[in-house]
Amino acid sequence: MKRIVEFTVNGEAREIAVETCRSLLDALRDEVGLTGTKKGCDVGDCGACTVVVDGEPVNACLMLAVEAEGRTVETIEGLQPDVGELHPLQDAFMRHGASQCGFCTPGILMMAKKLLDDNPNPTDEDIRFGLSGNICRCTGYTKIFDAIKSAARAMEAARS
Question: 86: burial class by Cβ within 10 Å (0-12, 13-18, 19+)?
Answer without folding.
Answer: middle
